Amino acid sequence: MLKGIGAAGLAAATALAPAAAQAKPEQARREQVPTEQASPEQAHVDDIVVTGRRSGVPLWTVKSGKTTLVLVGHIGGVSKTTKWDPEALTEALRKADRVVFPEMHAFTASPFSLFGWLAKWNAMGSLPKGQTLADFAPPDDMRRLAALSARGLVRKDYTGRHPLHLSGDLREHAEEGIKYGRGAGEYVRRAVKDYKLELVPVPEEKAKPLINDLFASSPRDHLPCLHASIALAEAGPAAIQARSDAWAQRRVRAVLASPVQAVGKSCWPAATVADKPDALIAQMKRLLGEPKVTVVVLGLSALADPGGVLDGLEAAGFDIAGPPWKD
Protein backbone atom coordinates (compact mmCIF):
# COMPACT_ATOMS: atom_id res chain seq x y z
CA MET A 1 0.00 0.00 0.00
CA LEU A 2 2.74 2.45 0.84
CA LYS A 3 4.37 1.66 -2.46
CA GLY A 4 1.32 3.20 -4.11
CA ILE A 5 1.62 6.35 -1.99
CA GLY A 6 5.29 6.95 -2.61
CA ALA A 7 5.50 5.15 -5.97
CA ALA A 8 8.48 3.06 -4.95
CA GLY A 9 9.02 1.96 -8.50
CA LEU A 10 7.22 1.94 -11.79
CA ALA A 11 4.57 -0.25 -10.17
CA ALA A 12 2.73 3.04 -9.79
CA ALA A 13 3.08 3.78 -13.50
CA THR A 14 1.92 0.32 -14.57
CA ALA A 15 -1.27 0.94 -12.60
CA LEU A 16 -2.04 4.11 -14.53
CA ALA A 17 -3.72 2.58 -17.58
CA PRO A 18 -5.93 0.19 -15.56
CA ALA A 19 -7.06 3.12 -13.44
CA ALA A 20 -8.24 4.94 -16.52
CA ALA A 21 -9.89 1.81 -17.88
CA GLN A 22 -11.91 1.45 -14.71
CA ALA A 23 -13.12 5.03 -14.92
CA LYS A 24 -14.95 4.53 -18.22
CA PRO A 25 -17.26 1.65 -17.18
CA GLU A 26 -18.09 3.62 -14.04
CA GLN A 27 -19.07 6.56 -16.21
CA ALA A 28 -21.24 4.31 -18.36
CA ARG A 29 -23.07 3.07 -15.28
CA ARG A 30 -23.66 6.65 -14.18
CA GLU A 31 -25.17 7.54 -17.53
CA GLN A 32 -27.67 4.69 -17.20
CA VAL A 33 -28.93 5.90 -13.82
CA PRO A 34 -31.42 8.77 -14.06
CA THR A 35 -30.61 11.62 -11.73
CA GLU A 36 -33.42 12.70 -9.45
CA GLN A 37 -34.15 16.27 -8.54
CA ALA A 38 -34.08 16.95 -4.81
CA SER A 39 -37.62 17.87 -3.87
CA PRO A 40 -37.70 19.86 -1.80
CA GLU A 41 -33.94 20.43 -1.86
CA GLN A 42 -33.70 22.27 1.44
CA ALA A 43 -35.63 19.52 3.25
CA HIS A 44 -33.21 16.98 1.81
CA VAL A 45 -30.25 19.03 3.03
CA ASP A 46 -31.70 19.23 6.53
CA ASP A 47 -31.72 15.43 6.74
CA ILE A 48 -27.90 15.41 6.95
CA VAL A 49 -27.08 15.43 10.64
CA VAL A 50 -23.69 13.65 10.63
CA THR A 51 -21.09 15.30 12.87
CA GLY A 52 -18.29 12.73 12.60
CA ARG A 53 -18.48 11.75 16.28
CA ARG A 54 -19.78 8.24 15.60
CA SER A 55 -17.70 7.44 12.55
CA GLY A 56 -14.47 5.51 12.61
CA VAL A 57 -13.13 7.95 10.05
CA PRO A 58 -12.39 11.68 10.37
CA LEU A 59 -15.49 13.22 8.86
CA TRP A 60 -16.74 16.81 8.79
CA THR A 61 -19.94 18.47 7.64
CA VAL A 62 -19.90 21.95 6.16
CA LYS A 63 -23.17 23.81 5.71
CA SER A 64 -24.13 26.72 3.50
CA GLY A 65 -27.47 28.34 2.81
CA LYS A 66 -28.05 25.97 -0.09
CA THR A 67 -26.52 22.64 0.78
CA THR A 68 -24.16 20.48 2.85
CA LEU A 69 -20.75 18.97 2.14
CA VAL A 70 -19.63 15.83 3.93
CA LEU A 71 -15.81 15.85 3.91
CA VAL A 72 -14.27 12.40 4.37
CA GLY A 73 -10.61 12.32 5.43
CA HIS A 74 -9.10 9.11 4.09
CA ILE A 75 -5.62 7.64 4.31
CA GLY A 76 -3.91 4.95 2.30
CA GLY A 77 -2.71 1.97 4.29
CA VAL A 78 -5.42 1.08 6.81
CA SER A 79 -4.28 -2.03 8.66
CA LYS A 80 -6.53 -5.09 8.70
CA THR A 81 -6.30 -5.13 12.48
CA THR A 82 -7.63 -1.57 12.72
CA LYS A 83 -11.35 -1.62 13.43
CA TRP A 84 -13.37 1.36 12.30
CA ASP A 85 -17.10 1.99 12.40
CA PRO A 86 -18.60 3.09 9.05
CA GLU A 87 -22.06 3.87 10.46
CA ALA A 88 -22.01 7.66 10.14
CA LEU A 89 -20.29 7.49 6.75
CA THR A 90 -22.95 5.05 5.52
CA GLU A 91 -25.70 7.35 6.78
CA ALA A 92 -24.23 10.29 4.91
CA LEU A 93 -23.82 8.30 1.70
CA ARG A 94 -27.41 7.10 1.76
CA LYS A 95 -28.62 10.69 1.87
CA ALA A 96 -26.13 12.16 -0.59
CA ASP A 97 -26.80 13.21 -4.17
CA ARG A 98 -23.27 12.76 -5.46
CA VAL A 99 -19.71 11.78 -4.60
CA VAL A 100 -16.50 13.59 -5.57
CA PHE A 101 -12.87 12.41 -5.41
CA PRO A 102 -11.12 15.75 -6.10
CA GLU A 103 -7.57 14.39 -5.77
CA MET A 104 -8.06 11.36 -7.99
CA HIS A 105 -6.22 11.35 -11.32
CA ALA A 106 -6.97 8.89 -14.12
CA PHE A 107 -3.92 8.44 -16.35
CA THR A 108 -3.91 6.80 -19.76
CA ALA A 109 -1.04 5.09 -21.56
CA SER A 110 -0.51 2.41 -24.19
CA PRO A 111 0.80 -1.04 -23.20
CA PHE A 112 3.87 -0.45 -25.40
CA SER A 113 4.69 2.72 -23.46
CA LEU A 114 4.36 0.87 -20.17
CA PHE A 115 6.86 -1.79 -21.22
CA GLY A 116 9.33 0.88 -22.30
CA TRP A 117 8.93 2.83 -19.08
CA LEU A 118 9.41 -0.30 -17.01
CA ALA A 119 12.73 -0.99 -18.75
CA LYS A 120 13.88 2.58 -18.12
CA TRP A 121 12.80 2.33 -14.49
CA ASN A 122 14.83 -0.82 -13.95
CA ALA A 123 17.87 0.79 -15.57
CA MET A 124 17.44 3.79 -13.28
CA GLY A 125 17.86 1.64 -10.16
CA SER A 126 21.62 2.13 -9.90
CA LEU A 127 23.47 5.44 -9.85
CA PRO A 128 25.68 6.30 -12.84
CA LYS A 129 29.06 4.62 -12.87
CA GLY A 130 31.57 6.33 -10.58
CA GLN A 131 28.86 8.01 -8.51
CA THR A 132 27.76 7.05 -5.00
CA LEU A 133 24.99 8.23 -2.72
CA ALA A 134 27.55 9.84 -0.41
CA ASP A 135 28.44 12.30 -3.20
CA PHE A 136 25.23 14.27 -2.65
CA ALA A 137 23.20 12.84 0.27
CA PRO A 138 23.51 14.62 3.66
CA PRO A 139 26.08 13.01 6.00
CA ASP A 140 23.44 12.43 8.67
CA ASP A 141 21.26 10.46 6.25
CA MET A 142 24.29 8.36 5.27
CA ARG A 143 24.97 7.65 8.94
CA ARG A 144 21.38 6.58 9.49
CA LEU A 145 21.46 4.37 6.40
CA ALA A 146 24.61 2.66 7.70
CA ALA A 147 22.83 1.95 10.98
CA LEU A 148 19.83 0.52 9.13
CA SER A 149 22.15 -1.60 7.01
CA ALA A 150 23.77 -3.01 10.16
CA ARG A 151 20.28 -4.08 11.27
CA GLY A 152 19.61 -5.74 7.92
CA LEU A 153 16.94 -3.20 6.99
CA VAL A 154 18.57 -1.95 3.82
CA ARG A 155 20.49 -3.58 0.97
CA LYS A 156 24.25 -3.89 1.36
CA ASP A 157 24.77 -2.07 -1.93
CA TYR A 158 22.68 0.92 -0.82
CA THR A 159 25.44 3.43 -1.57
CA GLY A 160 25.06 2.72 -5.29
CA ARG A 161 21.25 2.78 -5.38
CA HIS A 162 19.16 5.57 -6.86
CA PRO A 163 17.47 7.46 -3.97
CA LEU A 164 13.95 6.72 -5.22
CA HIS A 165 14.63 3.00 -5.59
CA LEU A 166 16.34 2.92 -2.21
CA SER A 167 13.33 4.68 -0.72
CA GLY A 168 11.13 1.87 -2.00
CA ASP A 169 13.42 -0.73 -0.42
CA LEU A 170 13.19 1.05 2.93
CA ARG A 171 9.41 1.31 2.82
CA GLU A 172 9.07 -2.38 2.02
CA HIS A 173 11.00 -3.20 5.19
CA ALA A 174 8.81 -0.83 7.17
CA GLU A 175 5.70 -2.68 5.98
CA GLU A 176 6.87 -6.15 7.02
CA GLY A 177 4.11 -7.97 8.88
CA ILE A 178 1.45 -5.37 8.01
CA LYS A 179 -1.63 -6.55 6.11
CA TYR A 180 -3.98 -3.95 4.71
CA GLY A 181 -7.75 -3.84 4.81
CA ARG A 182 -10.42 -1.61 3.34
CA GLY A 183 -10.17 2.11 3.99
CA ALA A 184 -12.69 4.91 3.61
CA GLY A 185 -11.91 5.53 -0.05
CA GLU A 186 -12.62 1.92 -1.01
CA TYR A 187 -15.75 1.93 1.14
CA VAL A 188 -17.12 5.00 -0.62
CA ARG A 189 -16.35 3.63 -4.08
CA ARG A 190 -18.34 0.49 -3.24
CA ALA A 191 -21.22 2.60 -1.92
CA VAL A 192 -21.37 4.54 -5.19
CA LYS A 193 -22.33 1.27 -6.90
CA ASP A 194 -24.59 -0.01 -4.14
CA TYR A 195 -26.62 3.21 -3.80
CA LYS A 196 -26.35 4.23 -7.46
CA LEU A 197 -24.94 7.61 -6.53
CA GLU A 198 -23.81 10.17 -9.05
CA LEU A 199 -20.01 10.02 -9.24
CA VAL A 200 -18.44 13.20 -10.55
CA PRO A 201 -16.17 12.02 -13.41
CA VAL A 202 -12.45 11.90 -12.82
CA PRO A 203 -10.64 13.89 -15.53
CA GLU A 204 -8.37 11.78 -17.70
CA GLU A 205 -4.79 12.81 -18.37
CA LYS A 206 -1.98 11.31 -20.40
CA ALA A 207 0.65 9.59 -18.27
CA LYS A 208 3.54 10.60 -20.52
CA PRO A 209 4.24 14.04 -18.99
CA LEU A 210 4.28 12.55 -15.49
CA ILE A 211 6.63 9.75 -16.50
CA ASN A 212 8.85 12.12 -18.45
CA ASP A 213 9.11 14.26 -15.33
CA LEU A 214 10.41 11.23 -13.44
CA PHE A 215 13.06 10.27 -15.99
CA ALA A 216 14.19 13.86 -16.46
CA SER A 217 14.77 14.26 -12.73
CA SER A 218 18.19 13.90 -11.10
CA PRO A 219 18.94 11.57 -8.17
CA ARG A 220 19.37 14.66 -6.00
CA ASP A 221 15.73 15.62 -6.66
CA HIS A 222 14.58 12.55 -4.72
CA LEU A 223 16.56 13.18 -1.53
CA PRO A 224 13.47 14.47 0.35
CA CYS A 225 11.74 11.16 -0.41
CA LEU A 226 14.79 9.22 0.79
CA HIS A 227 14.96 11.28 3.99
CA ALA A 228 11.29 10.57 4.76
CA SER A 229 11.71 6.87 3.96
CA ILE A 230 14.70 6.58 6.31
CA ALA A 231 12.54 7.94 9.14
CA LEU A 232 9.80 5.45 8.32
CA ALA A 233 12.24 2.52 8.22
CA GLU A 234 13.61 3.55 11.61
CA ALA A 235 10.09 3.71 13.05
CA GLY A 236 9.14 0.35 11.54
CA PRO A 237 5.77 -1.41 11.23
CA ALA A 238 4.64 -0.06 14.60
CA ALA A 239 4.44 3.44 13.09
CA ILE A 240 2.20 2.22 10.27
CA GLN A 241 -0.10 0.46 12.71
CA ALA A 242 -0.18 3.46 15.07
CA ARG A 243 -1.15 5.80 12.24
CA SER A 244 -3.91 3.45 11.09
CA ASP A 245 -5.33 3.18 14.63
CA ALA A 246 -5.13 6.94 15.18
CA TRP A 247 -7.12 7.48 11.99
CA ALA A 248 -9.89 5.15 13.19
CA GLN A 249 -9.92 7.00 16.53
CA ARG A 250 -10.20 10.34 14.69
CA ARG A 251 -6.99 11.62 16.30
CA VAL A 252 -6.23 13.83 13.34
CA ARG A 253 -3.00 15.46 14.57
CA ALA A 254 -1.52 12.09 15.50
CA VAL A 255 -2.13 10.81 11.97
CA LEU A 256 -0.57 13.87 10.37
CA ALA A 257 2.50 13.62 12.61
CA SER A 258 3.23 10.06 11.45
CA PRO A 259 6.36 9.45 9.35
CA VAL A 260 4.09 7.74 6.84
CA GLN A 261 2.54 11.10 5.97
CA ALA A 262 5.92 12.62 5.14
CA VAL A 263 6.57 9.81 2.65
CA GLY A 264 3.27 10.47 0.91
CA LYS A 265 4.05 14.16 0.55
CA SER A 266 7.63 13.91 -0.67
CA CYS A 267 7.83 10.86 -2.96
CA TRP A 268 7.01 10.65 -6.66
CA PRO A 269 4.34 10.66 -8.03
CA ALA A 270 2.25 11.89 -5.09
CA ALA A 271 4.35 15.02 -4.67
CA THR A 272 4.07 15.71 -8.41
CA VAL A 273 0.31 15.36 -8.87
CA ALA A 274 -0.87 16.76 -5.53
CA ASP A 275 -3.55 19.40 -5.93
CA LYS A 276 -2.83 22.80 -4.43
CA PRO A 277 -4.86 23.78 -1.34
CA ASP A 278 -6.17 26.97 -2.95
CA ALA A 279 -7.60 25.03 -5.88
CA LEU A 280 -9.28 22.49 -3.58
CA ILE A 281 -10.72 25.22 -1.35
CA ALA A 282 -12.13 27.01 -4.40
CA GLN A 283 -13.71 23.76 -5.59
CA MET A 284 -15.35 23.16 -2.20
CA LYS A 285 -16.80 26.67 -2.25
CA ARG A 286 -18.29 25.99 -5.68
CA LEU A 287 -19.88 22.78 -4.43
CA LEU A 288 -21.34 24.64 -1.46
CA GLY A 289 -23.06 26.98 -3.88
CA GLU A 290 -24.87 24.15 -5.66
CA PRO A 291 -28.11 22.62 -4.27
CA LYS A 292 -26.83 19.05 -4.04
CA VAL A 293 -25.63 17.22 -0.95
CA THR A 294 -22.10 16.06 -1.77
CA VAL A 295 -19.77 13.56 -0.15
CA VAL A 296 -16.18 14.63 -0.85
CA VAL A 297 -13.33 12.17 -0.31
CA LEU A 298 -9.97 13.87 0.30
CA GLY A 299 -6.65 12.85 1.78
CA LEU A 300 -6.49 13.78 5.45
CA SER A 301 -3.46 15.99 4.82
CA ALA A 302 -5.30 18.00 2.16
CA LEU A 303 -8.14 18.55 4.59
CA ALA A 304 -6.42 19.12 7.92
CA ASP A 305 -2.92 20.41 7.28
CA PRO A 306 -2.39 24.07 8.23
CA GLY A 307 -3.74 26.14 5.36
CA GLY A 308 -5.68 23.16 4.04
CA VAL A 309 -9.32 22.81 3.06
CA LEU A 310 -10.76 22.95 6.58
CA ASP A 311 -8.76 26.04 7.50
CA GLY A 312 -9.76 27.69 4.23
CA LEU A 313 -13.47 27.01 4.67
CA GLU A 314 -13.37 28.13 8.29
CA ALA A 315 -11.67 31.38 7.28
CA ALA A 316 -14.40 31.92 4.70
CA GLY A 317 -17.03 31.77 7.46
CA PHE A 318 -18.53 28.34 6.85
CA ASP A 319 -19.96 26.31 9.75
CA ILE A 320 -17.86 23.13 10.20
CA ALA A 321 -18.79 20.21 12.48
CA GLY A 322 -16.48 17.27 13.15
CA PRO A 323 -13.39 16.17 15.07
CA PRO A 324 -10.71 18.72 16.06
CA TRP A 325 -8.04 19.16 13.40
CA LYS A 326 -5.78 21.84 14.92
CA ASP A 327 -3.10 21.61 17.60
Description:
This protein is α/β, with parallel strands linked by helices and 327 residues long. The protein has a domain at 2-124 and 181-207 and 248-321. 50% of the residues lie in helices and 10% in strands. The chain is built from 18 helices and eight strands. It has helices at 2-6, 11-14, 16-32, 41-46, 87-94, 111-123, 139-150, 163-174, 184-194, 208-216, 223-235, 237-248, 252-256, 259-266, 270-273, 277-288, 300-304, 309-315, and strands at 59-63, 68-74, 98-100, 106-108, 198-199, 204-206, 294-299, 319-321. The strands form two sheets. A six-stranded mixed sheet has the order 5-3-7-2-1-8, sandwiched between helices. Strands 4-6 form a two-stranded parallel ribbon. A hairpin with a 4-residue loop joins strand 1 (59-63) and strand 2. Helix 8 packs parallel to helix 11, helix 11 packs antiparallel against helix 14 and helix 16 packs across helix 18. The longest helix is centred in the N-terminal third of the chain and has 17 residues, at 16-32. It is globular, with a radius of gyration of 21 Å.
